[in-house]
């Protein structure tokens, strides 16, 4: 801008010179020239007569040397002005080119900024969409939370009603006379006899008492087939051995060891009797035989 301003100053300085009006290249000087010619028409005896005088048309031989020199100097100055004007014109054209380039660069910068702004706007719009989507999800969650809260209230009310019903039913049940129910066996062996009668069947559902031996020993005493009833005699195997005294349960004679017998004299309880009964024909035969023997022994006492 400083260069262009300087060139403008130069141009104004050059144009301000009175000799500049005679430059044919400067269009602004033409009206002045025309005015001057008009002035010549209104004022005869001006430059035309002077020119005639200089070119010796009217008065040959009367032109002075100083006048010639002054005209030569004027022509030189005019030439110099023309050169300066030409240079100023070139400088102006160059500056215009630079200004155009600068303008183009600024346009490019503006376009880049516009593109950046557009990309930012695009990002903002996408974020706005995300925010809108998230807000929608939040609203959905709030609705679900409200539904759950309502469900909790409904369940609480239902629970309260059920508790009232339960209390009423308990009061009614307290008034009803209990009816004896048929006894169901708690301990049931495997229903398939092919599996139940195997020697490796473990009798997992059999009733078990820790005090089945009088001695209270955890490990059963060594088996003496003459003293201990083999479990096979009531349909069981070694995995459910009641440790029954053979003489007490299977013989009509009294066991001489009595209360200090190392084998069990304790009568079978209901669970054990039920389980032995379900073990099969052997179990039922054992129960019948032992009941008969024990009954007779009790009568004898
Ligand atoms: Zn005994």
From TrEMBL:
PROSITE patterns named in the record: ZF_C3H1
InterPro entries named in the record: Znf_CCCH
Signal peptide limits: none
Polar residues composition-biased segments: 1-10
Domain C3H1-type: 244-268
One annotated GO molecular function: zinc ion binding
Pro residues: compositionally biased ranges: 183-192
Biased composition (Basic and acidic residues): 16-29, 197-214
Zinc fingers classed as C3H1-type: ranges: 244-268
Keywords linked to the UniProt accession: Metal-binding, Zinc, Zinc-finger
Annotated region described as Disordered, given as residue ranges: 1-49, 183-231
UniProt protein name: C3H1-type domain-containing protein
Organism encoding this protein: Decorospora gaudefroyi
